[in-house]
Amino acid sequence: MTAAALFPTAASASATHHTARDGVVFAQNDSLTGNQVIAFDRAADGSLTQAGSYATGGLGGQLTGSVVDHTASEGAVAYDAAAHLLYTVNAGSTITVFAVHGDQLTRLQVISSGGQFPVSITTHGSLVYVLNARDGGSISGYLRVGRRLVAIPAWHRELGFNPNPSPEFTSTPAQISFSPNGSQLIVSTKGDGNSFAVYGVGVLGPAAQPTITTLPGTVPFGFGFGRYGHLVTSEAATDAVATLALGRHGTLTALDTALTGQAATCWAVVVGDKVLRSTSTRPSFASSSNATPLTEWSAAVIITRRAPEPISTSPIKSIARSARAG
Question: Is the pTM of this model over 0.85?
Answer without folding.
Answer: no
